[in-house]
Amino acid sequence: MGVIERYSELLPVTEKTPRITLGEGNTPLVRVGNVSDMLGIDLWAKLEGCNPSGSFKDRGMVMAVAKALEDGAKALVCASTGNTSASAAAYAAAAGVPCYVLLPAGKVALGKLAQALMYGAAVIAVRGNFDKALEMARAAAEREGFAIVNSVNPYRLWGQRSGAWEICEVLGKAPDWHAIPVGNAGNISAYWAGYKQYKELGKINTLPRMMGFQAAGAAPLVTGKPCPNPETVATAIRIGNPVSAHLAKEAVKESGGEFNSVTDDEILAAQHILSSNGGIFAEPASCAPLAGLIKLKKEGRLPQGITAVMILTGNGLKDPDTAMSQVGRPVEIGDSLEELLEVMKG
Ligand code: AN7
User: Fold this and answer.
1) Of 64, 202, 228, 254, which is most buried with the most CB atoms under 10 A?
2) Over the chain, what HEC string results?
């Protein structure tokens, strides 16, 4: 059962909303034992890379596309740092509706680009950053009457609330801390709305502190002003002027949380720890929260014994180039057993 059917009572769907799904949602929430011990907390990872297109975007995209179909949209448009385009292209393909995706030229991870092209979207590389591409996508959608499926589309945030509901269902409560990467700032806003909705319904008694982590080179919510030239290895969150900044600020303020930034080196170190100590391969942007928790631990600002959930927003396989730049190459041998045994001795 996908997000729409599973949560139809909590979402703004009608009888006319098509129950489309690619099997999104219901992703694993796993305890990361080794890293919990290292940090002195109870750390859980929400594996959003297990969604059909490999990122959390599918939760909201299924809603946005279903609503676009309900409204008779002729085509979908989005700008993207990669994952939104992969997700939009997938659901557009399944729904049989054309999809235009605008990408910052040369700044999208290889796996995501391959996805958008394979799913058959019209892929347009804009010489400019994501913020510029989004401005153009919105203008084109308005001019042509196409459905914009970026998180400015409120149905995206509705669907993304489902992540919070699932976490509460598995833990039987809300976590103390919710640690999440922040780019265009939609997901942190959606999670906060999801937790609040569950509290209002009496399904949970407490709310988490919303801890939003940005890359140091693209940290407008930490510095308090737009970043005209965002730059980071975590290309998914290479965003300088988040459209949902106001909602995200509200979420952080209301929850007593904070925004913080982490350097590219800290992000890559966290990615390596998570994969080699935790067996979980998440893309660089997804590792910003772990990098942030490690940073706070070093600063003595990580309360010990708390339950924290980090949202691993995208699959590590999406960005093979960054991963390969961080690791060695395989040892190559001939077809001799002796040689193999020699190599295995190290
Ligand atoms: C892996 O795909 O903005 O703060 O165009 O791909 O809700 O934007 C991606 C964002 C975190 C940030 N982690 O979420 C896009 C895009 C990953 C992401 C974010 C993104 P938001």
Assistant:
1) 64
2) CCHHHHCCCCCCCCCCCCCCCCCCCCCCEEECHHHHHHHCCEEEEEEHHHCCCCECHHHHHHHHHHHHHHCCCCCEEEECCCHHHHHHHHHHHHHCCCEEEEEECCCCCHHHHHHHHHCCCEEEEECCCHHHHHHHHHHHHHHHCCEECCCCCHHHHHHHCHHHHHHHHHHCCCCCEEEEECCCCHHHHHHHHHHHHHHHCCCCCCCCEEEEEEEHHHCHHHHCCCCCCCCCCCHHHCCCCCCCHHHHHHHHHHHCCEEEEECHHHHHHHHHHHHHHHCCCECHHHHHHHHHHHHHHHCCCCCCCCEEEEEECEEHHHCHHHHHCCCCCCCCCCCCHHHHHHHHHC
